[in-house]
Amino acid sequence: MPDSLVLDQLRKTYRTRGREPFEAVRGIDLDVSAGELVALLGPSGCGKTTTLRMIAGLETVTSGDIRIGGRSVPDLPPGKRNLGVGFESYALYPPLTVRENLAYGLKARKVRDADAQVDTLAARLEMTELLPMRPSGLSSGQKQRVALARALIRQPPVLLLDEPLSHLDASARQRVRRELRTLQREFGYTTIVVTHDQLEALSLADRMAVMDAGVIQQFGTPDEIYDDPANRFVADFVGEPPMNLVDGVVEQRSAGTVVHLGQAGFLATSARHATDGAKVTVGLRPQDCVTAADGSGLTCTVRVFENLLEYGLGTLDVAGIAAPLLAQTGSDTVWATGETVRIAAPPERVYLFDQGSGDRVR
Ligand SMILES: Nc1ncnc2c1ncn2[C@@H]1O[C@H](COP(=O)(O)OP(=O)(O)OP(=O)(O)O)[C@@H](O)[C@H]1O
């Protein structure tokens, strides 16, 4: 049976002799339901691995609590926490073959069809040919698959995975990712996956926690995070190509709020709480840009147009704004260099952020 996992004001301060204490995790709250897959997503150094290692019991907790199935675990050794841990660095037993490594725990528990279970899982993770090999002969991508299999075969109530697919080549990564998702759904393990790869997080996760500087910036479903980013960091980090972020000035009109961008014109926005005349950061996803009717939207000049067959990407100069704007077009639109185009977006997709705090202005 899967267990719930709760992080309650979890903190980690690293104290290294001769150095200032470093707060890697700064008070994290996270409530993961039984059977849910949550991705911890963030840039290098944001504290994802430290968080996972504290849950696993490989790192001490400075303060706060971790509860697995309602039981507080920070004082328990790793082996008593009832977790499956798929860390690449987690040692396999070198004298045993991969098959023996995978079957070890099952045989210790006297599971009758241990070998058949190993065969089935190995086939699903495309690693049957690795079963007779010894750990020292494996490449990093192969070791990663074995670590994943070893965590999965125990059918743990809570599964922790740290960058589980990072060493696989692009096509194997997609297939193993889908298989991991299928296995997780089938067996219902509560799962935390640490990744810096947003595609991995978007495709695997029921919900994702976007982290930066030791803090969870937003926790929600992939759609909530993409459609309704809580702040400038999340808006910038999630989405490919990234959201355009440019300076703008708010004007409150009787018909609604608009935001002016340089000398290029203005866009209507559904944000209602912006102060008239305030300088804000305007967020506009390249995918949300549409061609506007004459006399409305932003007047832009095409600097470069890339025809990527299924869609096009225009790099547009905007009068009065230093950085260019990226706009994605449908496959039937082709822009010429130097052409003038008018760009708009649905008002609910024109995001405003406070220039000081970076918080969303709604
Ligand atoms: N043992 C340690 N002693 C001191 N500082 C550490 C230690 N381990 C990690 N850190 C620091 O804590 C911060 C968070 O590290 P962590 O490994 O949790 O980040 P991460 O988000 O997983 O990044 P990455 O994806 O690069 O592994 C980093 O600035 C790192 O340098």
How would you characterize the overall build of this protein?
With 362 residues, the protein is an alpha+beta fold. The chain folds into two domains: 5-236, Rossmann fold (3-Layer(aba) Sandwich), CATH 3.40.50; 242-361, no CATH class. The chain is 23% helix and 34% strand. The strands form four sheets. Strands 6-7-8-3-9-10 form a six-stranded mixed β-sheet, sandwiched between helices. A six-stranded antiparallel β-sheet has the order 13-12-11-14-20-21. α5 (170-187) links the parallel β7 (158-162) and β8. Adenosine-5'-triphosphate binds at residues 14, 16, 22, 24, 42, 44-50, 196. GO terms for molecular function: ABC-type transporter activity; ATP binding; ATP hydrolysis activity. This is ABC transporter. It holds the Pfam family OB_MalK.
Strand order of the biggest β-sheet: 6-7-8-3-9-10
Major sheet: 6 strands, mixed
Structural class: alpha+beta
What small molecules accompany the polymer chains? adenosine-5'-triphosphate
pLDDT under 50 segments (min length 5)?
none
How many structural units, i.e. domains? 2
Itemize the secondary structure elements and their pairings.
Blueprint: E1 5-14, E2 22-32, E3 37-41, H1 48-56, E4 63-68, E5 71-72, E6 83-86, H2 98-108, H3 114-124, H4 140-153, E7 158-162, H5 170-187, E8 190-195, H6 198-204, E9 207-212, E10 215-220, H7 222-227, H8 232-237, E11 244-253, E12 256-261, E13 265-269, E14 279-284, E15 290-291, E16 298-307, E17 312-318, E18 325-329, E19 340-344, E20 350-354, E21 360-361
Parallel strand pairs: 3-8, 3-9, 6-7, 7-8
Antiparallel strand pairs: 1-2, 1-4, 4-5, 9-10, 11-12, 11-14, 12-13, 14-20, 15-19, 16-17, 16-19, 17-18, 20-21
Helix pairs in contact: 2-3, 2-4
Bound molecules: adenosine-5'-triphosphate.
Adenosine-5'-triphosphate (ATP) binds at residues 14, 16, 22, 24, 42, 44-50, 196.
